[in-house]
Design brief:
9 helices
Length: 200
């Protein structure tokens, strides 16, 4: 069990996440029917987070504050498509929550996930349910519950967020008529979960 996340472990988590989504980008592209069926969500999310992974490989940040700030900045610069922009916002809010922290525990991880959700919702003019916003919001809410039980176990907090995110993702098909008609879960929500799983 890892009791806290420092700069090196956060950087490693993002590097793993980038590798994970790169491997699964084609499957995510195939789910891409909403809001536009352009088949590039997986590619866009992969390219976006790969920019951050490359930056973190060069920088070797010591503190989680430095790592999260470098990650957010690189994601914003490398953001491709709407899915890349939303991903960059989720991590921009995260970076804001961990500013000036050397390390974070499970409780602070949950708070940072929640800050990310708030930043993403604030930037979307008409947030729709059954999207990456829903998946990230419910995952963050579950992370907060888990953090109350295991404040010193960020891995358990992230595992709980992923488990809830998976349930939320499966339910996106019932929340969005376009997804229901196509019989698929939300592509961006899928990409976000692949990233969380890679981080874990």
């Amino acid at each position: 069990m890892r009791e806290c996340i420092d700069g090196a472990s956060f950087a490693q988590a993002i590097i793993h996440a980038a590798a994970s989504i790169n491997l699964q980008k084609q499957q995510i592209n195939e789910l891409n029917v909403f809001p536009v069926p352009d088949g590039d969500t997986g590619t866009n999310m992969s390219l976006t987070i790969s920019t951050a992974a490359a930056e973190l490989r060069k920088k070797h940040p010591k503190t989680v504050s430095d790592a999260a700030a470098a990650n957010a900045s690189a994601l914003l610069r490398g953001a491709r498509g709407n899915s890349g922009v939303i991903l960059s916002l989720l991590f921009r809010g995260f970076a804001k929550a961990v500013k000036d922290k050397d390390v974070i525990d499970g409780r602070e991880l949950a708070i940072a996930l929640d800050f990310g959700v708030a930043a993403a919702y604030k930037a979307v003019m008409k947030p729709a349910e059954g999207t990456i916003l829903t998946v990230s919001r419910l995952a963050a809410a579950r992370a907060a519950d888990a953090a109350r039980a295991t404040p010193n176990d960020p891995e358990a907090v992230l595992e709980a967020a992923i488990a809830e995110g998976q349930l939320a993702l499966e339910n996106t098909i019932n929340q969005n008529p376009v997804l229901k008609k196509a019989g698929v879960a939300d592509a961006r929500g899928t990409g976000f979960l692949v990233i969380l799983q890679g981080m874990l």
